[in-house]
Design a protein that fits this description.
Layout lengths: L2 E6 L4 H13 L3 E4 L10 H13 L5 E6 L3 H8 L6 E3 L3 H9 L5 E5 L5 H13 L6 H11 L1
Parallel strand pairs: 1-2, 1-3, 3-5, 4-5
Helix pairs in contact: 1-5, 2-3, 4-5
Bound molecules: D-ribose.
Length: 144
């Protein structure tokens, strides 16, 4: 079973707890890299931690959450080999796996409700990367 690393700042903490519960219910192995409360913390720390877990192979995939998903996705994308897609719709989740082969999904805890966030996570997990014409572009990203 895939191992999924999950991390958030305080703005994403509540949604992280819900997504973690959902992933465990689906049978995934989950590594929670924090944060562990609503006390204010710095999102770059958590985006980096999740990015490093996935890039090193300690986790197969990752989910990062801050207030908007923006800051923590920027942080995760600084790690070589990470393709983190910030998604606000099920269609975006589908396409970021199908075309970008996103290995980390970013969500906004203050901008996306729990029900939609769960649907986004499921769509991203259940969609297959298409390869083909997208492979060259993904390789270009990975060389950056
Ligand atoms: C923290 O208040 C907030 O800036 C953070 O969660 C995130 O939205 C940053 O992009």
């Amino acid at each position: 079973m895939l191992k999924i690393a999950i991390a958030s700042d305080h703005g994403g903490f509540a949604l992280k707890e819900k997504i973690k519960e959902h992933l465990l219910k689906r049978g995934f192995s989950v590594e929670d890299l924090g944060t562990y409360s609503e006390e204010s913390v710095d999102y770059p720390v958590y985006g980096k931690a999740c990015g490093e877990a996935v890039a090193s192979g300690k986790a197969d995939l990752g989910v990062v959450i801050c207030g908007t998903g923006i800051g923590i996705s920027i942080a995760a994308n600084k790690i070589k080999g990470i393709r983190c897609g910030l998604c606000t719709s099920v269609e975006m989740a589908h396409l970021t796996k199908q075309h970008n082969n996103a290995n980390i999904l970013a969500l906004g805890g203050r901008t996306t409700g729990v029900d939609l966030a769960v649907k986004i996570v499921d769509e991203w997990l259940d969609t297959e990367y298409e390869g083909g014409r997208h492979q060259r572009r993904v390789e270009m990203l990975d060389r950056m």
